[in-house]
Amino acid sequence: AKAKGKCRYEIFNSLMYAQVAGQLQLETDLRRGLEQGEFVVHYQPIISLFTNRMVGFEALVRWNHPERGLVPPDRFIPIAEETGLLVPLDWWVLNQACGQMRRWQSQFPASQKMVMSVNLSGKQFWQPDCLEQIEGVLHKTGLPRSNLKLEVTEGTLIDNDMPTSRLLSQIRALGMGLSIDDFGTGYSSLSYLHRFPFNTLKIDRSFISMQFSGESKIVEAIIVLAHNLGMNVIAEGVETSKHKQRLRELGCEQAQGYLFSPPVDAVSATELFDSQFAA
Ligand code: C2E
Ligand code: CA
Ligand code: CA
Ligand code: CA
């Protein structure tokens, strides 16, 4: 038994070692990746459930790792956050997304109303010059404010709500859009909805897939609540036409999900523009 115990201890130890080593390696890689331009932004169309046309995109970052291939954000964002690399990465994503949207606007003049949604992390939000940085990116890329929408989660707001509240009001007053992301997960506090000036609520995809195992009442209630508070609703993770059908019946305005398109690179997204705006 003793031998077995020791063996287990050693396995545990080497697993831990591998984990720590892996983490350190990832951290080094991340730094290098940022310097060498290994990150790319993908774009997922957001569709109007009334017209079935694209009304915007969400920018989603990916890491094109030389050995590991395309790494999804869930794998590197937590480490990027711990090491302070997420903030520069997020500003880079905002720059890319606004610049790309601006180029699409000149290439497809009929797309002037399309909106680019970008995720803002908590750390970014707490930077004292956050608003100046956003304005700087808009100025530099030439994208009008009304074509940018920022997505924040409830987790971002929970820390310390006074400065955020001011920042959120300023963002709205300047004419940018504001979404509460992943609604219904995490620290869901209904008071956020009237305390902060969101104009869009994004229902987390866990509710959309749950919908058809008998929980459609939750989705229905969220949509009614959002509408009563003057917000539009985007359903995330719409994968089947049954989902789409039901959401449309419930009055949900917009949707995003594999049914329409996964997130795609800028070249493929340009093809989506081509087909929507073909003469
Ligand atoms: P999110 O903001 O909730 O983004 C939506 C996620 O759902 C994306 O995952 C997207 O690929 C995925 N998705 C879209 N449609 C479907 C569907 O029909 N079914 C399923 N199963 N999934 C779908 P992704 O790109 O892996 O991003 C994961 C999370 O990483 C994002 O969740 C967001 O919180 C974070 N993230 C992504 N890019 C950025 C970024 O540039 N900055 C920050 N701070 N966070 C980011
Ligand atoms: Ca998001
Ligand atoms: Ca989301
Ligand atoms: Ca999510």
UniProtKB/TrEMBL annotation:
Keyword Coiled coil: yes
Shown part of the complete sequence: 432 to 710 of 712
Domain EAL: start-end pairs: 23-277
Source taxon at top rank: Bacteria
Keywords assigned: Coiled coil
Annotated GO biological process: phosphorelay signal transduction system; regulation of DNA-templated transcription
Phylogenetic classification of the source organism: Bacteria, Bacillati, Cyanobacteriota, Cyanophyceae, Oscillatoriophycideae
UniProt protein name: EAL domain-containing protein
Signal peptide range: none
